[in-house]
Design goal:
Blueprint (H helix, E strand, L loop, with lengths): L4 H5 L14 H11 L4 H7 L2 H8 L10 H7 L7 H4 L22 H5 L40 H4 L22 H21 L1 E10 L1 H4 L14 H9 L20 E7 L10 H9 L2 E2 L3 E5 L6 H6 L4 E4 L6 E5 L5 H12 L4 H27 L10 E11 L2 E10 L2 H9 L9
Antiparallel strand pairs: 1-7, 2-8, 3-4, 4-6, 5-6, 7-8
Bound molecules: zinc ion (ZN) (2 copies).
């Protein structure tokens, strides 16, 4: 530790470290506010790794606060619930809330309380104050970025400087802590139940299309729209009756998501070597006019017939590829296919998932193209705004989960018309 531990322990509010389920952010922010620490003092009195982890997570790859911190955390509780966001996010890639912004209940924040449980989107309202959780400043609506101007300013302040603590008090007293702890304990049990029931055989792949991408604020880019996780859990419930039911304060809206669940054809772990995956990854090539995609198995004849004007087969070594007109696939789709293969999942299932996705993506691109050419028709494919696909393992077997959101057709048509992207990134 690069500071004097005894001076750390002398800080006002240090004894509040034992608050259950509260975030490291809330604890350190309280130390800074209570002791009126300047930036320099904050770094001097509080271990640098804690400060970086909370207020400047991009500086270093979110360092573990280390044994020094664990030493201070009351051993009666799991240190992890205070140290990390991770235990609270069953499937981070399905969450629609940015981890880059502080999210919480306005009244809790005024009391100087924040829990990482609020960071995901599983909880929609504060269980005690029944207020909707928000990642925006209640005074000026600015997103509450973790990282802004200075450390001391970031402690319970919005980036524009509004005070998130009520009045002058330093947030050392929160009368509702026991009630909150009671809820969080149950919430953690629910998350563990979801995690033990649902596992990914092949990671979820999310693609946003122009109707969704247009006008999207920075903090929401790359994130699914609200309701994806409840929609998936509810859709899988008939196949996994052991899945827990949500409580009143959980987000239960499915938003715009429509989910389809189908048994996955490949139930046993078909072997696929790491070399094979690497070969597939290296076969991607994105260009201005042509894009090459690995196609380990031949495309379905029906799809191939429809695609005949756009696709060329390349019997390459070490893997066969298809070369498609670049406008048929988006950069987001190519990147998603690559990400899928790069993930450390069950290889055989991931490869099959990849092939199914490739068919979906080509089919969607084809429909888009047909509809662009026939403006009088009723466009449907143009209206897909987001799509998600995953292979999930339940006790009852493997299931493919496919989801999409639709958007209004006119808006979709306009956004596709203006859609342009850089294609030479590979
Ligand atoms: Zn609250
Ligand atoms: Zn503000």
């Amino acid at each position: 530790m690069d500071n004097d531990a005894s001076s750390l322990e002398k800080l006002i509010g240090f004894d509040t470290i034992s608050r259950r389920y509260e975030s490291l952010y809330a604890f350190v922010a309280r130390l800074i506010r209570s002791n009126l620490l300047s930036d320099g003092e904050a770094r001097r009195f509080i271990p640098k790794s804690w400060v970086i982890k909370i207020f400047a997570p991009d500086d270093e790859a979110s360092p573990d606060p280390g044994p020094d911190f664990r030493k201070y955390v009351d051993s009666r509780f799991s240190a992890l619930t205070k140290l990390d966001i991770e235990p609270w996010a069953p499937f981070p890639t399905l969450t629609s809330v940015s981890q880059r912004c502080l999210r919480g209940c306005q009244t809790c924040l005024e009391l100087g309380h924040h829990s990482y449980a609020y960071q995901g989107d599983l909880i929609a309202r504060c269980p005690i104050h029944d207020e909707p959780l928000t990642h925006r400043c209640p005074h000026c609506q600015t997103p509450l970025w973790w990282r802004h101007s200075t450390i001391s300013e970031s402690a319970f302040r919005c980036p524009r400087g509004c005070d998130l603590l009520g009045g002058l008090h330093m947030g050392l007293e929160a009368t509702t802590l026991n009630d909150l702890a009671f809820f969080f304990r149950r919430h953690l049990a629910l998350i563990r139940r979801i995690r033990s029931t649902l596992r990914f055989a092949s990671s979820p792949i999310y693609v946003a299309y122009p109707p969704r991408l247009i006008d999207l604020p920075i903090e929401e880019q790359g994130l699914p729209s609200l309701g994806l996780l409840p929609a998936i859990v509810d859709a899988l419930r008939p196949y996994g009756p052991e899945l827990p039911t949500f409580e009143k304060h959980h987000g239960q809206s499915h938003g715009a998501w429509r989910i389809k669940v189908t048994p996955f054809p490949l139930t046993n772990d078909a072997p696929a070597s790491a070399t094979e995956s690497l070969n597939l990854l290296q076969a991607f090539k994105r260009g201005a006019f042509r894009t090459e995609l690995p196609a380990p198995s031949p495309l379905a004849p029906a799809l191939l017939r429809k695609l005949k004007d756009y696709v060329m087969l390349i019997e390459g070594n070490p893997v066969p590829r298809i070369s498609v007109a670049s406008y048929l696939v988006t950069t987001g789709e190519v990147a998603a296919l690559q990400r899928l293969l790069a993930k450390d999942n069950d290889q055989g299932q991931t490869q099959m998932h990849y092939e199914l996705l490739l068919h979906d993506i080509l089919g969607r691109g084809l429909k888009r193209q047909e509809e662009r050419q026939r403006p009088e028709s009723r466009p449907r494919a143009l209206g897909v705004a987001e799509s998600v696909s995953a292979v999930m393992r339940l006790a009852s077997g493997l299931f493919r989960v496919q989801g999409y959101t639709a958007t209004d057709i006119v808006r979709a048509r306009d956004s596709w018309k203006d859609f342009a992207e850089s294609v030479d990134y590979l």
